């Protein structure tokens, strides 16, 4: 999980929420500048970031582009499957992650 430094508190709350409500998941956070290195080291199945998915997306199972702007949609892509949700709640984000797990 990596968001701009201005949204570090939001990132931390999301990470804690995922850890608590999905205790089976190993959750790591990173600064955007260190994301590439963390991807190599951690090899995540799901990436949550406030950036669009890069073209070289073969190194993870799913990308969740979380929007910090409540008027823009959060986007998820997992292989050929994708969905969008504007201003999702924590429960909705977790439901999206659960749905992703079906495709991994």
Fold blueprint:
Blueprint: H1 8-21, H2 35-42, E1 46-49, E2 62-65, E3 73-78, E4 81-86, H3 90-103
Parallel strand pairs: 1-2
Antiparallel strand pairs: 2-3, 3-4
**What spatial order of strands do you see in the largest sheet?**
1-2-3-4
Count of individual domains = 1
Structural class computed from helices and strand pairing: alpha+beta
Radius of gyration using CA atoms only? 13 Å
Q: Total number of helical segments?
A: 3
End-to-end CA span: 18 Å
Q: Which regions have little confidence, pLDDT < 50, spanning 5+ residues?
A: none
Question: What series of H and E elements makes up the topology?
Answer: HHEEEEH
Mean pLDDT across the residues is: 87
Q: Main beta sheet, described?
A: 4 strands, mixed
Helix coverage percent: 25-40%
How much of the residues is beta strand, in percent?
15-25%
Query: Shape, please?
Result: globular
Total count of strands: 4
Question: What would you note in describing this structure?
Answer:
It contains three helices and four strands. It is of the alpha+beta class and 104 residues long. The protein has a four-stranded mixed beta sheet, with helices on one face. It has helices at residues 8-21, 35-42, 90-103; strands at 46-49, 62-65, 73-78, 81-86. It is globular and about 30 Å long. The chain has one domain (5-103).
């Amino acid at each position: 999980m990596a968001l701009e430094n201005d949204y570090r508190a939001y990132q931390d709350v999301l990470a804690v929420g995922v850890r608590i409500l999905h205790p089976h998941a190993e959750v790591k956070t990173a600064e955007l500048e260190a994301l590439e290195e963390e991807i190599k080291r951690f090899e995540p199945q799901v990436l949550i970031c406030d950036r669009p998915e890069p073209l070289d997306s073969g190194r993870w199972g799913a990308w969740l582009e979380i929007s910090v702007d409540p008027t823009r949609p959060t986007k998820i892509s997992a292989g050929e499957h994708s969905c969008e949700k504007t201003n999702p709640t924590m429960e909705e984000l977790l439901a999206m992650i659960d749905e992703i797990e079906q495709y991994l």
